[in-house]
Amino acid sequence: MPTASRPTVAPAHTHGQAPFTAVLLCNLGTPEAPTAAAVRPYLAEFLADPRVVEIPRVLWLPILYGLILPLRSAKSAAKYATIWMPEGSPLKVWTERQAKRLQGWLGEQGHRVRVAYAMRYGQPSIATQLDALADAGANRILVLTAYPQYSGTTVASVIDAVSQWTRTRRHVPELRFVNRYHDDRGYIQALAHGVQRHWREHGRPDHLVMSFHGVPERTLHLGDPYHCECRKTARLLAETVGLEPGGYTVSFQSRFGKAKWLEPATEPTLKALARDGKRRVDVLCPGFTSDCLETLEEIAIEGRQAFLAAGGQEFHYIPCLNDQTEWIHALGAIALNHLAGWPTQSGPDARELATQKERAVALGAAR
Fold first, then answer.
1. Are residues 174 and 189 in the same domain?
2. Is 171 flagged in the annotation as binding?
3. Are residues 265 and 118 in the same domain?
4. For residue range 239-282, what is the model confidence (pLDDT) as tens digits?
5. Which ranges of 27-125 does DSSP label H, i.e. alpha helix?
6. Among 6, 104, 108, 274, which is most buried by a count of CB atoms within 10 Å?
7. How many domains, in total, are found in the chain?
8. Between the ranges 3-7, 316-320, 341-345, where is the mean pLDDT highest?
9. Which domain holds residue 38?
10. Half-sphere exposure of 69 (CA within 13 A, CB side)
11. 218 in a domain, yes or no?
């Protein structure tokens, strides 16, 4: 079994094999099925990550395994069942489609880049996908996270997983990371396109809510830039679609535990807007690039119910970027910016590779 002190033995190298550059698109993760049995190991991996829950392990793990997992697994599974697609988990479906379309877009621009996707928690894992790419000959890998706003709970956790993988490899490829793109023009324009398209089809709301995933407030005071980057994304998007500061609200969802989290919270915000006489609200989740449980169930179902029950008349959920063409173009531009300097448009030709192999074999190489 691989350990930090003993790297695995790499597959036998084949001389003359063309190296290539790869992009690994990393998202959060998902259970394999909407069942308690499938949700439990996913939640265990997710909530046991010290980047996600910053409580001493000796205190947290007994609570997680003795209380949280037995109680939450079945409840979460029931929620997943309400949003499951015929092809599987929405987050996995959209992430896979993004990866395929991103590789196609890069190819159309003349770049010889292989794109794969991985999940920080669940399958396909980051380690498994990195192994597959490296074993196939990838000598340069760009790790592109699905998180527009940087947070230690998300982006840094992906970096942790990649770093842990490098400790199992004797021959480590060159690695680069995309940590954030919260203010990238293409990303903002893609968000704006989705909002404006929805408004053309359904009219404008009385108020727009931009709901981001929440994190404990203490992370802000400890130096995590996530809160500030969410605010900047919201401001830039509002300016792009022509909203004044009073026409939208930034909120934070998915609170967990008793600690104080970033505010205002999304559900109380929706209820307050209804009580204040807002007849229609539209809700967008700019921090999620793929629709998932947090957007389709927590916002589109639970958020809708909260707003209508408080007296609101009309609730619209604006879908995530998913595989919209505008987003794929923006994602491609982000990738190319970080791939700069790597030879993605050329490589050794067949004759040169054959010569390399002949020389290696002449020196005693088996293959």
1. no
2. no
3. no
4. 999 999 999 999 999 988 788 999 999 999 999 999 999 999 99
5. 36-47, 57-63, 69-83, 90-108
6. 274
7. 2
8. 316-320
9. 20-182+325-350
10. 19
11. yes
The DSSP 8-state label assigned to residue 247 in this structure reads: G
Q: Let me know: does 141 contact 175? Beta carbons within 8 Å.
A: yes
Residue 298 to residue 256: CA distance in whole angstroms: 13
- 114 and 202, same domain (yes or no): no
On whether both 146 and 236 belong to a single domain, the answer is no
b/e 344-366 (16+ beta carbons within 10 angstroms → b): beeeeeeeebeeebeebeeeeee
Residues 48 and 192 in one domain: no
198 closest CA partner among 319, 326, 330:
319
* Residue-wise burial string across 111-139, b where 16 or more C-beta atoms lie within 10 A, e elsewhere: bebbbbbbbbbbeebbbebbbebbeeebb
Query: Whole-model pTM above 0.90?
Result: yes
Nearest CA to 49 among 119, 120, 125, 123?
A: 120
How far apart are the two ends of the chain, measured CA to CA in Å? 27
**Per-residue pLDDT tens digits for 151-163:** 999 999 999 999 9
Residue owning tokens 């669940």: 122
Residue 182 assigned to a binding site? no
On whether both 88 and 192 belong to a single domain, the answer is no
In whole angstroms, what is the distance from residue 245 CA to residue 263 CA? 17
CATH number at residue 232: 3.40.50.1400
241, 157: one domain: no
* Structural contact between residues 256 and 262, judged by C-beta atoms closer than 8 angstroms: no
- For 219, list phi and psi in degrees, rounded to 5: -65, -35
| One domain for residues 87 and 202 | no
| Strand-pair category, 248-253 with 174-178 | unpaired
